[in-house]
């Protein structure tokens, strides 16, 4: 701990991504270790919001659907995201939330495998993924759809030719454990299974090669590592080879091939726009569109390399600090086997998290006993990491987190 700040300064001097931090508007003296849950605001967003609200909406009114290309925004944003996913053009669209998009893709995937009825996922998956799959199943008969959950360790052994759809999240939201998309997709496709990947904690965080890995479908989040703002719309990736065979259950007019023909018969768009449903949230999508420009001149490999260095630096400071020995790391110790986050188990995790926030070190708590830290490469410095570790060290040493106010549960943790 003693040399933490000195070592951090040296690492900051050598960091090629260090200048990117200035593009973000972060409160003074705050270390934000929660960009994996809600990305912070880029300074460019304020002017973008003024523009979309005052000029585009205020002055342009409805003409902005054409004049400012609002109608193309889902695919404009989709193409920017595609570059981060290793996806050729025409396969990514920005729309709705991850939850809603999973419902759409479950419908598509099940129809692509009409002789089968099992949807397989993991017990450790993010709850919304399981809720959506369960809700989807509840509208169908047992013959049409069944939901099967397996333990992460049993995943490969659970694959067989009865399974229609495999639904997985690449980065475990608790431990950060990283799935090998290429390997699992190939293993599932060997049995004729269609795979849907949830990239909520992957997009903008780890390099992806969805085309090269022959991925069928994927979804991901706009408000986490893509910094699109609270409730930013999500995205869908659908491999081009499937576009001609899709039956998308949420057949809204924006997915129609000619919405303004107002034809009573649904005729889907032949391209990726068939995954749209209703009218896109233009203000929110415009913010995400602007936020994505930060990735323009930066490679995902550089982002990943820095994030691994940041999490490794933090992990090492915690591991070598005596007082922090009571925190048990549940994330893989090999940084290549985890996303850009670390999770520690501690019986007082909630109170420690609240006490950290009171000291302007923002992390999050995941029930029942996990303290989770996200390492976003774009706006965190090694000095930030050293300061966070020193604050944590002080709180744990003095047990200041035992003050009753830190144990009061809030609605959002
Ligand atoms: C954050 C997250 C979501 C969020 O879904 P929304 O419907 O967009 O709120 C879904 N899945 C995973 C794995 C997540 O981490």
Task: Write a structural description.
The chain is of the alpha/beta class. The protein is 33% helix and 14% strand. It is built from eleven helices and 15 strands. The chain has helices at residues 4-14, 44-59, 64-67, 73-85, 98-112, 127-138, 181-190, 282-291, 300-319, 349-358, 382-398; strands spanning 24-25, 31-32, 41-42, 92-94, 118-122, 146-150, 163-169, 194-198, 217-220, 235-238, 328-329, 341-345, 361-362, 364-366, 370-374. Strands 4-10-9-8-7-5-6 form a seven-stranded mixed sheet, with helices on both faces. It has a four-stranded antiparallel sheet with strand order 11-12-15-14, covered by helices on one side. The protein has a two-stranded antiparallel ribbon with strand order 1-3. Strand 14 (364-366) and strand 15 form a beta hairpin. Helix 1 runs antiparallel to helix 11 (382-398). It is globular. The structure holds pyridoxal-5'-phosphate. The site of pyridoxal-5'-phosphate has 13 residues, from helix 5 and helix 6.
How would you summarize what this structure contains?
The protein is α/β, with parallel strands linked by helices and 413 residues long. Helix content is 33%, strand content 14%. Strands 4-10-9-8-7-5-6 form a seven-stranded mixed sheet, with helices on both faces.
Feature tags:
alpha/beta; globular; 413 residues; 15 strands; 7-stranded mixed β-sheet; 4-stranded antiparallel β-sheet; binds pyridoxal-5'-phosphate
Instruction: State the strand order across the main sheet.
Output: 4-10-9-8-7-5-6
Form type: globular
Give the low-pLDDT segments.
Answer: none
Q: Which structural class do the helices and strands define?
A: alpha/beta
Number of discrete helical segments: 11
Residue-averaged pLDDT: 97
Kindly state the number of beta strands. Answer: 15
Q: Ligands bound here?
A: pyridoxal-5'-phosphate
- How many strands, which pairing sense, and closed or not: the largest β-sheet? 7 strands, mixed
| Gyration radius, in Å | 22 Å
N-to-C SSE string, H for helix and E for strand = HEEEHHHEHEHEEHEEEHHEEHEEEH
N- and C-termini, Cα separation? 28 Å
- Strand proportion, as a percent range, falls in 5-15%
């Amino acid at each position: 701990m003693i040399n933490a700040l000195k070592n951090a300064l040296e690492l900051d001097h050598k960091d090629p991504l260090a200048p990117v931090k200035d593009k973000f508007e972060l409160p003074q003296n705050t270390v934000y270790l929660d960009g994996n849950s809600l990305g912070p605001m880029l300074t460019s967003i304020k002017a973008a919001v003024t523009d979309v609200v005052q000029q585009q909406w205020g002055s342009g009114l409805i003409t902005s659907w054409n004049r400012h290309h609002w109608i193309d925004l889902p695919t404009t944003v989709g193409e920017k995201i595609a570059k981060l996913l290793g996806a050729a053009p025409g396969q990514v669209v920005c729309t709705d939330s991850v939850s809603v998009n999973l419902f759409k893709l479950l419908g598509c995937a099940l129809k692509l495998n009409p002789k089968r009825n099992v949807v397989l996922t993991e017990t450790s998956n993010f709850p919304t993924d399981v809720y959506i799959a369960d809700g989807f199943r509840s509208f169908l008969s047992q013959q049409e759809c069944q939901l099967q959950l397996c333990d992460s360790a049993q995943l490969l052994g659970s694959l067989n030719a009865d399974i229609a759809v495999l639904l997985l999240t690449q980065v475990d939201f608790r431990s950060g454990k990283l799935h090998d998309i290429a390997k699992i997709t190939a293993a599932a496709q060997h049995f004729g299974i269609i795979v849907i990947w949830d990239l909520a904690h992957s997009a903008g965080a780890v390099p992806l090669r969805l085309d090269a890995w022959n991925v069928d479908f994927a979804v991901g989040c706009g408000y986490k590592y893509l910094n699109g703002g609270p409730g930013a719309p999500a995205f869908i990736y659908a491999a081009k080879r499937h576009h001609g065979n899709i039956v998308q259950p949420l057949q809204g007019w924006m997915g129609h091939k000619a919405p303004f023909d107002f034809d009573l018969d649904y005729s889907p768009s032949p391209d990726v726009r068939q995954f749209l449903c209703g009218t896109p949230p233009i203000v929110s999508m415009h913010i995400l569109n602007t936020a994505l420009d930060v990735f323009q001149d930066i490679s995902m490999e550089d982002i990943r390399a820095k994030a691994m260095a940041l999490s490794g630096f933090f992990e090492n400071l915690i591991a070598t600090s005596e007082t922090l020995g009571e925190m048990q790391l549940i994330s893989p110790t090999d940084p290549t086997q985890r996303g850009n986050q670390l999770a520690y188990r501690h019986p007082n995790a909630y109170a420690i998290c609240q006490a950290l926030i009171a000291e302007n070190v923002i992390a999050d708590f995941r029930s029942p006993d996990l303290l989770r830290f996200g390492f976003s490469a774009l706006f965190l410095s090694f000095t930030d990491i050293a300061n966070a570790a020193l604050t944590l060290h002080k709180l744990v040493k003095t047990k200041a987190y035992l003050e009753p106010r830190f144990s009061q549960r809030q609605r959002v943790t």
